[in-house]
Structure prediction request, 112 residues.
Amino acid sequence: AQLVESGGGLVQSGGSLRLSCTAPGFRYSGIGWFRQAPGKEREWVSCISPNHEYILYSDSVKGRFTISRDNAAENTVLLQMNNLKPEDTAVYYCHLLGTLTWGQGTQVTVSS
Prediction:
């Protein structure tokens, strides 16, 4: 199993980034995004079920981040991040829910 993330980078406060996670072969699996800031534990950000039955967000990103998935495109899961804040700075990881499978992580840095 392999998850491949992309889309991280450096952005100013108030800016936007879109993260992408491809999960070929996992059409029927829930997928989540997590993040880990320096010196902090990894925290859950958002998740989406295979057929969009449930979409959930942590309180810290609700209203600013949007998760979506395209099961026809190698099960690509997108995380659109708007109105970014310096406290969103972290390494963001894609995770196959209920498994030990994680992506390699992509760095998001928000400058003030």
Remarks:
- The two ends are 37 Å apart (CA to CA).
- The beta strands are 4-6, 9-12, 17-22, 31-36, 43-48, 55-57, 65-70, 76-81, 90-96, 106-111.
- The chain has no helices and ten strands.
- The first strand starts at residue 4 and ends at 6.
